[in-house]
Amino acid sequence: MKSKPIVKKSNSIRNYRKKSGLPPGTLVYTGNISSDTTFDLFSYNAETVERTETDNIEEILKKTDKSRNNWINVNGLTNTDLISKLGDHHTLHPLMLEDVLNTESVPKIENYGDVLFISLKMLKWDDELNSINAEQISFIVGENYLLSFQEIEGDVFQPVRERLLNGLSKAREKSIDFLAYVLIDKIVDNYFVILEKIEDHIESTELELIRDTDLISPGHLMHLKKQLILLRKYVYPLRDEIRKLQRDDSKLIDRKTIKYINDLYDHLQNIIQNLESFRDTISNLMELYSSTISNKLNSVMKTLTVVGVIFIPLTFIVGLYGMNFDYMPELRYHWGYPAVLTAMLIISVGMYLYMKSRKWF
Fold first, then answer.
1. 176-211 and 218-247 are packed helices; what angle lies between their axes, rounded to 10 degrees?
2. Which of 6, 177, 251, 330 could form an S-S bond across to 34 if both were Cys, CB 3.0 to 4.6 Å?
3. Under a CB-based contact definition with an 8 Å cutoff, are residues 52 and 59 in contact?
4. Higher pLDDT residue, 213 or 259?
5. Domain for residue 1, yes or no?
6. In 10 A of CB 98, how many CB atoms?
7. Tens digit of pLDDT for each residue in 214-228?
8. Do 184 and 221 have their domain in common?
9. Would you call 105 helix, strand, or coil by DSSP?
10. Residue among 122, 202, 120, 209 nearest 157 (CA)
11. What is the distance between the alpha carbons of residues 156 and 138, in angstroms, rounded to a whole number?
12. CATH code for the domain of 334
């Protein structure tokens, strides 16, 4: 029975402290997602496919057929003992397994000669928080096996599983490295979904900003910019690693698969171009927001200045006739009060018409 995972907020610095003082190669899960470790095995060839889902590592290893391609997907990384057994069965280097459990590492591809290690981020969009959730995904490509490790059950691989089961996948007829490409391609395709979400928010923000600056806040613009920076943090290193893989003469990568890897590189280039475009758009929106707020403030200050200028002579007159001297002129004049009010009105209207004619407001 599968338990419900508990997801906690990530803190990369505190996560690294879990490994403090431990020798190299010690298996410590540095993530914050608590989930039972389960296995999903696809053992297949062009004619047949057999799927096994269990939390028993012995059953998985027993059903692994060396005469066929085997894809073992590991859900949950908290049980390091089970992951260690899987690594021992395939004689994997401890540092490689350490990288699998280090969920704060940047995307990278390392060639160990007999195996190929690939790590990247699988991204999901949180509609409630309007933010990106990143999950560490690691692949180990061997002679006739593919190991994939993810922190929690639930991914973008379901269409690949369905095609494997119904025989519609090209991977059934190709080497195991092609399946690795297909899975990575699904992750990268989902990056476009994230980009589309961000683009929708940018467009709606732009419309709201043009309509009324009070509808948005600087924090909202900074949040969008932060999501772009986060996506850039994961895409740029992956693009560079894929470029190195194109030039790497690895025996684990079929020459026919290189064409597909080239296409994957083009997709990442396209994502990066969109990221740069969105970043410029966000910067322009922030400048537009600042200039709009400044214009509003200038308009308010101009209005206050006009009112203040009009009241300066009126204040002078009121202050002058408010002095308590016995021998002030016009002090006992019968029409003095109406005359002063009339003079004040004429001065106010005259100053208003003068400033209006000079287009000061």
1. 160
2. 6
3. yes
4. 259
5. no
6. 20
7. 777 778 888 899 999
8. yes
9. coil
10. 122
11. 14
12. 1.20.58.340
